[in-house]
Write a structure and sequence with these properties.
Blueprint lengths: L12 H13 L2 H8 L3 H15 L4 E4 L2 E4 L1 H9 L3 H11 L9 E7 L1 H18 L3 E7 L13 E5 L8 E8 L1 E4 L2 H4 L8 H4 L4 E3 L7 E4 L5 E4 L3 E4 L3 H9 L5 E4 H10 L10 E2 L2 E7 L7 H16 L3
Parallel strand pairs: 3-4, 3-5, 8-11
Antiparallel strand pairs: 1-2, 5-14, 6-14, 7-12, 9-10, 9-13
Helix pairs in contact: 1-2, 1-3, 2-3, 6-11
Length: 305
């Protein structure tokens, strides 16, 4: 079959994929980062693609980039096509059981160090051709902008366009150093905790919801004396006696056993948070993503962290 534009020459599908990435990211900067190539190279590839087509796909101004009518029509016609092709290509790869290619994963720092990192390092050790890019960060990375294959999220989800798999429930605890409680009347109800200084993971007021005997609920709003956007930093600040901290129980289990941290009101507990693996729906056919989720889920379900 002879292509009406290219004759017997195939269209530049790689350039088409790059154009679709620019369209999805509304510009060259984020698309270049997601494509792992210099912005100038990406811009040149798109310009060459436009020249081959004989029509402009992007409107470039000092304020940014937008789609021309032809570019918008092309992007709409290709919507979802390349994600499905990625999965199809992965499915057609050699079935020798070896995992290959890049795997970009984002996970929160504490859960990442305890669960995701050991699971994926073991997977990478068994598959030398797998190029692991693990990003431990407490921000919510963006699948498109950051070029993610897999993300681990804590708490309720808002990524409805993504597929998800529940990994486990992460128990939490309100903890304090014995020095912080020394000389103070021991708390007997949640309202008593509000009299203590507290540590926050981010700026803004604290609201801790606790569940007590018989399923009773209480919300307290302690005053934050320090803000540290890292769970390990919050643990160290709590050990130093700076204030109460609400932390994952796995992160403080050693200190609780040793008595260097205690629970000031153990009959009242914060709700456990769900940990979920998120990935693109088509990625269920990609062996590296599927096996990575399986490895993380096994370790998370075992509770050995």
């Amino acid at each position: 079959m002879v292509h009406p534009k290219y004759g017997t020459k195939l269209p530049d599908y790689e350039a088409l994929a790059l154009f679709l990435r620019v369209a999805a990211h509304d510009g060259f900067g984020a698309a270049a980062r997601a494509s792992r190539m210099p912005k100038s190279t990406l811009s040149r590839r798109i310009a060459e693609f436009e020249a081959d087509l004989g029509t402009p796909l992007l409107r470039r101004t000092s304020r940014g980039v937008s789609l021309t009518a032809e570019g918008a029509a092309l992007a709409e016609a290709c919507r979802g096509g390349f994600e499905g092709l990625d999965a199809a290509i992965a499915h057609a790869a050699p079935r020798d059981g070896a995992l290959r290619g890049p795997l970009v994963v984002s996970a929160p720092q504490a859960f990442g160090v305890a669960v995701v990192e050991p699971a994926l390092l073991d997977l990478a050790a068994r598959h030398p051709a797998l190029r692991l890019d693990l990003r431990l960060e407490d921000r919510r990375a963006d699948f498109e902008i950051d070029g993610l294959d897999l993300a681990i999220r804590m708490g309720e989800l808002d990524d409805s366009a993504l597929a998800g798999r529940r990994l486990c429930l992460v128990a939490r605890a309100v903890v304090a150093s014995p020095a912080l409680l020394a000389g103070r009347t021991p708390p007997t109800q949640p309202a008593d905790l509000a009299a203590f200084a507290a540590l926050a993971p981010r700026q803004g007021p604290l609201r801790w919801m606790l569940q007590g005997p018989g399923g009773a609920l209480a919300t307290i709003e302690p005053a934050a004396v320090a803000c540290i956007n890292d769970a390990g930093g919050l643990r160290r600040a709590a050990l130093a006696g700076l204030g109460l901290a609400l932390l994952p129980r796995f992160l403080v289990k050693v200190e609780l056993r040793a008595g260097t941290l205690v629970e000031p009101l153990p009959s009242w507990q914060p709700a456990a948070l769900p940990a979920t693996a998120l990935f693109r729906r088509a990625a269920t056919a990609v062996p590296a993503v599927r096996d990575a989720v399986d490895a993380i889920a096994r370790l998370a379900a075992s509770g050995n962290f």
